[in-house]
């Protein structure tokens, strides 16, 4: 066992213990404090040539915070969300008990706390599964103008045995003729052709993927990537790629954060909407939302990528659609101005229209990071899982003292049961 220290978000020196070796069949793990930022967990594990397997797009978030939701990014299609990559938790329950739990020990609390929105206890330590850390990453973007080809290629890639290590995608709507500079910092493979490429007011879909590699074996990676790309139907002149270190890739959103902060555009309201949409209705959803409701994507990225339900453990508290393949669709809007197109009101009214459409058209959508404000809404959100969620609340936090801000369990409505 190696012990190393990590500076956590509170700038306190905390202990982070590494176990296992990562090799020869001994699964490696790290014991991280619940309040540690993922970026610091990464820095510490990289010193040992190891890294967690599943991520969020942004790493300056806490371990306990993302595990209380799900933790989803482009690795989830293969590794599952972050909640599928935890071996053990230490939790201080609402009763004040300090409980160590895992799939074998106090499993009801373990699964309840994963995606549990902080309702049953405070996660004070998490044992996170590790793998040997990749050294370099080939980071690729290609564009599609046809939604069906885009999603068919995404689905083929997440289902394939041999595939990329990270698969995401985003939607670019350019009906008003202004477009985010989507390819900043990317090297086009064919700069001449690429400079002629423009979207002409169409909706475009960007497929984003990575392949990890060791620089000593770059030629093998080139070959594998070539084969994978040859099966895809993107617009040929739009292939962009760049090679970066694993750390640079994982911490990519922080680089954007620094640029936005310098422009005063980070500390602004972010009326985000994150939806999980079943595969069977994603085309109807896209036609309505990208074809009619939204006029542009200038207020922030719109993520769209599929995952496989089999990588999500249904004993956790995470709520997902009832279908084998579902899409994560994230409308990550910024609202930098007080009125007009860049205002909170504008973004919220578009979000409302999208949610309204989903409800009326029976899309089978579930919200991720749901902002519900009444117990009735939460009951509808949890559906058949509500009974279990409520039972766990009575069991682990009978006085409903934890995370009241989620507005799931009002303090007064709970009887003093024990
Ligand atoms: C810029 C940005 C990018 C993001 N990108 C992604 C992404 O790519 N994928 C993704 O899945 N999510 C993403 N998220 C959402 C993120 O997973 C949640 O916001 C999560 O709550 C963040 O953790 P935090 O440390 O900021 O939590 P906080 O905001 O501090 O807490 C939020 C809630 O989580 C619960 N909680 C927090 N810590 C604990 C704990 N130790 N024990 C129990 N409950 C706790 C509580 O209910 C609390 O009210 C992103 C968020 C931001 C701000
Ligand atoms: C989803 O995962 C399961 C289990 O690995 C697999 O059998 C199934 O084929 C996958 N579905 C798709 C559409 O890839
Ligand atoms: C967006 O559309 C306008 C015309 O509608 C076009 O001039 C512009 O080049 C497009 N932007 C990109 C990057 O395709
Ligand atoms: C979880 O999935 C298993 C197998 O698919 C199923 O038998 C079980 O009923 C599910 N449990 C819940 C709580 O949905």
UniProtKB/TrEMBL annotation:
SUPFAM superfamilies in the cross-refs: FAD-binding/transporter-associated domain-like (SSF56176), FAD-linked oxidases, C-terminal domain (SSF55103)
Signal peptide: 1-24
Ranges where the Cytokinin dehydrogenase 1 FAD/cytokinin binding domain occurs: 134-409
Description of how the protein assembles with itself and partners: Monomer.
Domain of life: Eukaryota
PANTHER family the record matches: CYTOKININ DEHYDROGENASE 6, GULONOLACTONE OXIDASE
FAD linked oxidase N-terminal domain ranges (all copies): 29-102
UniProt keywords, alphabetically: FAD, Flavoprotein, Oxidoreductase, Signal
A GO molecular-function annotation: flavin adenine dinucleotide binding
Gene3D superfamilies registered for this protein in UniProt: 3.30.465.10, FAD-linked oxidases, C-terminal domain (3.40.462.10), Uridine Diphospho-n-acetylenolpyruvylglucosamine Reductase, domain 2 (3.30.43.10)
Entry cofactors: FAD
Protein name: cytokinin dehydrogenase
Enzyme Commission designation: 1.5.99.12
UniProt-listed Pfam families: Cytokin-bind, FAD_binding_4
Enzyme class (EC, first level): oxidoreductase
Gene Ontology biological process terms from the UniProt entry: cytokinin metabolic process
Assigned protein family: Belongs to the oxygen-dependent FAD-linked oxidoreductase family.
């Amino acid at each position: 066992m190696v012990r190393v220290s990590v500076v956590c978000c509170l700038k306190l020196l905390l202990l982070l213990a590494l176990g296992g070796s990562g090799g020869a069949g001994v699964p490696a793990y790290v014991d991280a404090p619940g309040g540690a930022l993922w970026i610091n967990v990464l820095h510490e594990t990289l010193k040992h040539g190891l890294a967690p397997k599943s991520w969020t797009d942004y790493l300056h978030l806490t371990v306990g915070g993302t595990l209380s939701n799900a933790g989803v990014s482009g690795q989830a299609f293969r590794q599952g969300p972050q909640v599928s990559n935890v071996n053990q938790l230490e939790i201080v329950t609402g009763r004040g008990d300090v409980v160590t739990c895992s799939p074998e020990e106090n499993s009801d609390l373990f699964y309840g706390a994963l995606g549990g929105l902080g309702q049953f206890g405070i996660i004070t330590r998490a044992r996170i599964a590790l793998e040997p850390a990749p050294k370099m990453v080939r980071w690729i973007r290609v564009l599609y103008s046809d939604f069906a080809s885009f999603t068919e290629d995404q689905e083929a890639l997440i289902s394939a045995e041999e595939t990329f290590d990270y698969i995401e995608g985003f939607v670019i709507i350019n009906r008003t003729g202004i477009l985010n500079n989507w390819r900043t910092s990317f090297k086009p493979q064919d700069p001449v052709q690429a400079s002629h490429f423009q979207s002409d007011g169409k909706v475009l879909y960007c497929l984003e993927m990575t392949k990890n590699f060791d620089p000593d074996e770059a030629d093998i990676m080139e070959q594998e990537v070539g084969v994978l790309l040859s099966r895809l139907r993107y617009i040929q002149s739009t292939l962009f790629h760049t090679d970066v270190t694993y750390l640079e890739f994982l911490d990519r959103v922080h680089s954007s954060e620094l640029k936005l902060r310098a422009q005063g555009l980070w500390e602004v309201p972010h009326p985000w909407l994150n939806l999980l949409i079943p595969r069977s209705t994603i085309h109807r959803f896209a036609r309505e939302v990208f074809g009619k409701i939204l006029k542009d994507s200038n207020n922030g990225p719109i993520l769209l990528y599929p995952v496989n339900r089999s990588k999500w453990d249904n004993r956790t508290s995470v709520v997902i659609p009832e279908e084998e393949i579902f899409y994560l669709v994230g409308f990550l809007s910024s609202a930098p101005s007080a009125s007009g197109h860049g205002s909170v009101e504008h973004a919220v009214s578009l979000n409302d229209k999208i949610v309204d459409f989903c409800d009326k058209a029976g899309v089978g959508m579930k919200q991720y990071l749901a902002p519900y404000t009444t117990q009735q809404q939460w009951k509808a959100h949890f559906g058949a899982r509500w009974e279990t969620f409520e039972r766990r609340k009575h069991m682990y936090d009978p006085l409903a003292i934890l995370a009241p801000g989620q507005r799931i369990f009002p303090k007064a409505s709970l009887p003093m049961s024990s």
